[in-house]
Amino acid sequence: MPTPDPLDAAAPVATIDLDAIAANAARLRTRLHGGADLLAAVKADAYGHGLLPVARTLAATGVRWFGVATPHEVRTLRDGGVAGRILVFGPLPAPALPPLLPRGVDLSVATTDDVAAVADAAAPLRAAGELREDVPLHVAIDTGMGRIGPPPDGVAAVARAAADLEGVRLEGVWTHFARADEADPAPTDAQHAAYLAALDALAADGLTPTLAHAANSAATLAHPATHHDLVRPGIALYGHAPAPDLADAAADLTPALTLDAPVTFVKDVPAGTAVSYGHAWTAPRATRIATVRLGYADGYPRAASNLGDAHLPGGGAARVVGRVCMDQLMLDVGDADLEPGDRVTLLAGAGPAGAATLAARLGTIPYELLARVGPRVVRRYRGGGSPSSGDAPG
Ligand SMILES: Cc1ncc(COP(=O)(O)O)c(C=O)c1O
Predict the structure, then answer these.
(1) Average pLDDT, stretch 369-377?
(2) Which domain holds residue 314?
(3) pTM over 0.90
(4) I need a labelling partner for 166 at 20 to 30 A (CA). Which of 10, 37, 287, 344 fits?
């Protein structure tokens, strides 16, 4: 375990419980329908939890598939020794392909041009002996997400190109749900029906991908018929419900990240004292204000001004008052006994300072709050049984 850096006493710290992530994966696995395997969405630095520690932990529990958004994430995983399959969730521009293909990667494609670009990049690598296998391609179908891929009636051309061109192979056909986190199953059922019809039409043309996959966390939890060969959960692995409607379905998952930050200054103020930029908050009574070394540059949203809560070390919660600054925020701690060096907790699992609570207050989702926990925040890992446990810069 690395020696703790004394400077970290001044920093916000995200403590990530790798055992909780492993346990969440195990719980999700127990719900998989029809022999589906699990692809862990680890994009965006594993939703702020740390790409390599999370991927290594999951790989050690038997997770064989990882989902990312960028070629840099593929490189980080491979450089970090992660050996599983890695699927990039969107098409990549041609210049990114030659350095990536020899590392071993599954690519999403949305057009025949995407397929041709991969085939073109693969050809010289094959000739040079740097690529031994055809590049596995996963054709994205837009069944209602409105993001990437042809509509169902356009998928045959892309799949045909993937099946026929040299250097590539048709590995998967996938879709993504827009509303699987809502209580009404109808929009997801309609998307899934369109997806099944597209798979049938492809099969009638002799195009049978090895892998069909569609389910994000919400569909993994609430729509077992969509599990097919792979499910692709992200947020559920990190212990959060995709949306309040799925809180019960996610009740056995454990939030893995807790953010804490040091108090740097405490003062008693009379009623009428204004706090922070714009004087957006004025003390309604005599109270105690604690300044905390956490701001929007660390990923704590400025929109949480006058809306966020922090858990205090002695118990209870205190409101974020006045505008959140770049590096600091202020709490109205009432008569709580706090002093500089004490640490307050934010974005914890549950309760008033929980990511889900704050997300609901801000009209956003826990995903955004977690993924934005910034690089200045020290990551501290618990569990996981890997050498990555211990302190690490974000
Ligand atoms: C293609 C794809 N699959 C799976 C996921 C994981 O989604 P969630 O975190 O809701 O499970 C995402 C994330 O947005 C995605 O873009």
Answers:
(1) 96
(2) 257-392
(3) yes
(4) 37
